[in-house]
Specification:
alpha+beta; Serine Threonine Protein Phosphatase 5, Tetratricopeptide repeat; 4-stranded antiparallel sheet; globular; Sgt1-like; CS_dom; CS domain-containing protein
């Protein structure tokens, strides 16, 4: 990598977009590297130069295709989807996100899947969000009972991240498109699968203000491209407000989105039919001060220093039993264990209707007006650069439900040292009997029905693939745990089942990954 390119990538990561674009532009004159084009596309997008962002993404895609580099084709196609969404070309955005998923799934790059031809009689894109959700649910259902461990061990890979991003942008695009009138430009498909962009940029590059962005965490911010507006220079300088200016809800919304990104919390989760395990990635929460307040449809965690309000509320898709909520505080995260009121799958963790006001401009404005708020109450200029205070004032006015919600929160049980154990009435032990399946174990057959299940699992401080299995195990019922232990042990760690009815009747064999051979320890 050239020195100029390296400096450009570093500048963009630090939020110095003007400098990053300039250095990458110089480097690209020497070498047309798809990765540099993709990174410059991100910088253009974050400075709202959408045509340039799209041109770079399509140029990167064209070069990656000529080099048969699938990974870079995936990255470039995803950049197209995100940029087209920001340009309000929602049908085009969904088509590009679909093509991203096809590349991830291993489809032929030049295959004509006909996705852009799925239009109705009026020429409007006919794919719906319900269809996409149904397709995702089928994939989840297919993987629910038996999971290959090698696949799960790589679940945190870039491929999985891009797959999740592509699905997210499909949902975002189709949700926005469905709000448009029939015949609207955002419902029309105009994209080609592999365009041939010109070498000349579509518009002249303009001077770009340097905007410093607080680093949220070490991960790529691609999944947070929800609309980063450029902060006006007079706010950064703390200049006096212009008396002639009139504040609009659109201005408030744009600035709120920029600040909300900095105050949101990364969430991972897993569910069974009866419980939900949630990981909130917040650092250094004092164990003796941590509080988790549960309601039927939400959980609030505090104190969180990275959030101005000091608390984070998770609005849930389904209802839980607040009195049975437990939590564990760790140095890098807080783990929640929630019990469902009604058995069944939620499929998604967060209530999109309850949280739409955070991510949809029309819903945000409607919610503000329903509370009798006016945009002039939250003049950005009045903050004099203190955007944290501005955000806190707006957030409390918009979303503080303490006065309006009569449902009292239930404090959750803390388990800072170890997860809380469930105490059940003693049951008379059945006599041990030989299993109905053959076994080659040197220690003889093992009766898995009498397996002692222990919640006390030693966990590493750092995140590893094993953490995923531990979270599944901890949030599961006894039969699920027996199934996991039996399948894992008998297969020598190559298979994992969560279905005890099936696992109890199955003798698992070692199934090494493709290209590997299973051998005994002394061979």
């Amino acid at each position: 990598m050239s020195t100029l390119a390296g400096e450009g990538l570093t500048s963009i990561k630090a939020g110095n977009y003007a400098e990053g674009i300039e250095k990458l532009s110089q480097a690209l004159k020497q070498q047309r590297a798809p990765l540099w084009l993709i990174e410059r596309s991100k910088a253009y997008l974050r400075t709202e130069q959408f045509e340039l962002a799209l041109h770079d993404a399509e140029h990167a895609l064209s070069i990656a295709l000529s080099r048969a580099n699938r990974d870079l084709m995936i990255e470039a196609q995803l950049r197209r989807a995100i940029t087209l969404f920001r340009m309000q070309k929602y049908a085009d955005a969904d088509v590009c996100a679909y093509w991203t998923l096809q590349l991830i799934a291993g489809a032929k790059a030049t295959e004509d899947d006909g996705q852009q031809k799925k239009v109705d009689g009026n020429g409007d894109y006919a794919v719906t969000m319900a269809e996409v959700q149904e397709g995702n649910n089928k994939v989840l259902e297919a993987n629910k009972k038996n999971v290959n461990l090698q696949g799960l061990a790589g679940d945190r890979s870039k491929t999985t991240t891009n797959r999740n991003l592509a699905i997210t942008w499909r949902m975002n695009s189709l949700s926005a498109m469905e709000k448009l009138e029939p015949g609207a430009p955002g419902r029309k498909v105009t994209v080609e699968k592999y365009p041939k962009p010109s070498e000349t940029p579509p518009v002249k590059e303009s001077a770009i203000q340097t905007v410093q962005v607080n680093e949220i965490d070490a991960e790529d911010e691609s999944d947070q491209e929800t609309g980063k507006p450029q902060i006006p220079q007079h706010i950064l300088d703390g200049a006096a407000p212009s008396r002639a200016s009139t504040v609009t809800w659109t201005e408030i919304w744009n600035q709120f989105q920029a600040e909300h990104r900095k105050h949101d919390v990364r969430v991972d989760w897993y569910e069974t039919d009866t419980s939900v395990s949630v990981s909130l990635f917040v650092k250094n929460v004092p164990k003796d001060l941590a509080q988790v307040d549960s309601k039927e449809s939400s959980v609030t965690v505090s104190p969180i220093s990275s959030i101005t309000s000091g608390a984070f509320t998770l609005h849930l898709k389904g209802k839980i039993r607040p009195e049975e909520t437990t939590y564990t505080v760790k140095s890098m995260k807080i783990e929640l264990s929630l019990k469902k009121q009604t058995a069944g799958k939620w499929r998604v963790l967060r209530d999109t209707n309850a949280e739409a006001k955070f991510y949809d401009q029309a819903t945000f404005i409607k919610h503000a007006e329903s509370r009798g708020l006016q945009p002039n109450q939250f003049g950005i200029d009045e903050s004099k650069g203190d955007l944290d205070s501005w955000y806190e004032k707006l957030y409390k006015a918009m979303f503080d439900t303490a006065a309006s919600n009569g449902t009292a929160a239930t404090p959750a049980s803390s388990s800072a040292a170890e997860p809380q154990k469930t105490v059940t009435a003693p049951v008379e032990k059945a006599k041990a009997s030989a299993p109905a399946y053959p076994t080659s174990s040197k220690s003889g057959p093992k009766n898995w029905d009498t397996l002692k299940l222990d919640d006390d699992i030693d966990e590493d401080k750092q995140e590893t693939p094993d953490d995923f299995f531990k979270m599944i195990y901890k949030g599961s019922d006894d039969d699920t745990r027996r199934a996991m232990m039996k399948s894992y042990v008998e297969s020598n760690g190559t298979s994992l089942s969560t279905n005890w009815e099936e696992a109890s009747k199955t003798s698992y064999k070692t199934e090494p990954p493709e290209g590997a051979t299973a051998k005994k320890w002394d061979e």
